[in-house]
Amino acid sequence: MLERVTIDQLDLRPKLIVAFVLVALLVAVTGAVGYTAVSTVDEEAHLIAEDGIRMDASAEMIVAIERQRGAIQAAQLGESGAQEQFNDAEALYTEHAERLEESELSAEQAARFETLQSQHQEYSQLGTEFFEAKNAGNDDLAERKAARMEELRIEMEENAHAIEGSAQEDLEAQVAAADSNTQTAQQEVIGLTLGAFVFAIVIGLFVARRITTPIRQLTEAAVAANNGDLTTEVDDHVEDDEIGRMVTAIKEMQGKLRAVFGDLDTVSRNLETGDLHQDINTEYPGQYGEIMRHLDSGTTQLTTSFGEIQEASNSLRTGDLDQTIASDKPGQYGTVLDDLEEGTETLSDAFAQIATASEGLKTRQLDRRFETDYPGVYGTVLRDLEAGIDQLSDSVGTIQDVADEVAASSDLIAESTEEIEQASEQVAGSVEEISHGADTQSENLSKVAGEMNDVSATIEEIASSAEEVTSTAEAAVERSEVGQEYAAEATEEISSIEAQADDAVGQVKTLDEKMEEIGDIVDLITGIAEQTNILALNASIEAARAGEAGEGFAVVADEIKSLAQEVSDATTEIENQIAMVQSTAGETVDGIEVMRNRVERGSETIEDTIEMFDEIATAVDEAEAGIQEISDATEDQAASSEEVVAMVDEVSSVSDQTAAEASDVSAATEEQTASVSEVSTNVQQLSQIAATLDDNVSEFDTRSGGRTESADAQTGGVSAVTQTDGGNVNPAGDGGQSRQ
């Protein structure tokens, strides 16, 4: 019902003023009614107060009359001060009579008051006469005056009580009227208050519905718009006031914002999909149109700038780093293009340095220098690359020095093995001669035994053969002495072989240690190759982040990675060759150890041979003494011929045993010679491997001070490597890897 009431002629402010004026009028009417009721009650209270005054004055006048009566009675009793009491009571009566006279008396009350006043005057006159008569001693007159005064007193009290009763009746009537007026005023005030309350509620509801509903909808629309929702519906306002015009403006603003944001959504979607060629509607009023025109101009600048960037990226993709970028754009567009142009120039210079380094790696020229004073990751990559090349150059230089030392050590070992082989051959020849001499001696002793058998047949033949036996014994002694000399020489040669074998073992162990040092250096080179590979990986990641603009960078990164792989393959081959050298050196040490064992056994065998020669020499000496005795006493020869034969047989068996031991020594010497030959072959293979290693590393052109810098590199390890973390390239600190 309230929604149907419309006031289109007034705006919201006059409507609110009218509503508050109506409420104020209701409050004013309520106040007026209350004021009137209060005034009426006040008048009634005033009248009640007047009636009270009359009642009080009448009562006090009766009291004063009674006091005058008491003073008369006191005087009749002869009490002193009665006249003063009478005068005081008269003054009290006069006071209250004046109060009663000043009050508003009714006609009846006024008539009774006049009668009372005249009677009191007469009563006062009689009292004066009473006291005069009493003072004069005229008691009869005084008694007559007193009797008359008593009659007047009764009449006065009746009139006073009549006035008091009339005032009482008036008071009760006024109280009843006041109660009636108060009740009526209360009912009127309550009725008006309730009416004003209801009217205020009606006006409040009317105003609230006309204001709060559209305000709530506008608030919801504003909150939704703040949250990005422009589809909230707002009802049309029924009146053409401020709220109605606000509703209309909000609805029109929603339409314009939807249109503007629709265009902005189209632009943003096109920007998201990379479509920079688009038409923007700029026909909007006020700031909307200005914003859209700025947006259209901005997209135009963005399209032009992206055109420059795309052209630059195409040039980078095709490897063309010599390009010119039109950077005369306003604001950040020009800044970005300036930075892009500067970046491409820096990238071009950096790639030129990298190309120089990669060309040097490709041609194995490690002594090339290039500029590393570039900002950011460019300088980091170039410094890391230069550090890697420096370490690679130092390592290759160290490998060259070690290869030279290995070649020199191999030559010394080869010479030592040749000397050992020659000494072994000499020992073998000496042992062969010993064996041959023992065989000859055994044959001679066999002949001596045969001849000694013939001695028993004829003394003459023994005598004639004694000289031959003596000469044979002397030859045997001489051959035994020669055998002892050869055995002594063989012992010396074997001692020399043992010393040279120990030297060879030490040199081979030194060679093995050198090979381990080379292995450490190869590990260092492998670490550098891995770091170079990581550097190439970082460059590939940067190229991938740059997109098409980094394809040229990716090509160079792949080339660096390929060179790093070649270095890694070369170090792997060197490691294999070092492993072969170490294996050959181990076999050489084992062979030398076997040779030492065999030499020790040969030495023991020769010592046994020397002992046998001593026994042979002793036996031959004894045989010579026996033959001499036979020659001196032929007659005793027959008796001792059997002993001579036995001694010859013993010498023959000793000779056979000596020949067998010499054969064993000869076999051991031959085995030793074979072992020395095998060692010589291994040393030659080691020398060939060292020569191959020297040839491989000698192709590198290293920088000066290679050995010192290599030692520093082995001591300090790799200074820095590069790692990738979310696409950022950083110099590695503790998290890097280094090998020493």
Q: What integer value in Å does the Rg equal?
A: 76 Å
Mean pLDDT: 73
Strand tally is: 2
The structure class reads mainly alpha
Number of structural domains: 3
* The named CATH superfamily of the largest domain: Methyl-accepting chemotaxis protein
N-C termini distance: 98 Å
Largest sheet: 2 strands, antiparallel
Which residues form runs of ≥5 with pLDDT under 50? 705-740
Helix content: over 70%
Q: Work out the strand percent.
A: under 5%
Domain Methyl-accepting transducer: 416-652
Pfam family, one: MCPsignal
InterPro entries: HAMP_dom, MCPsignal_dom
Family: Belongs to the methyl-accepting chemotaxis (MCP) protein family.
Q: What's a quick, concise take on this entry?
A:
The chain is mainly alpha-helical and 740 residues long. The chain has helices at residues 12-76, 82-102, 107-136, 139-226, 242-273, 286-317, 331-362, 376-455, 459-546, 551-632, 634-698, 706-716; strands at 722-725, 728-731.
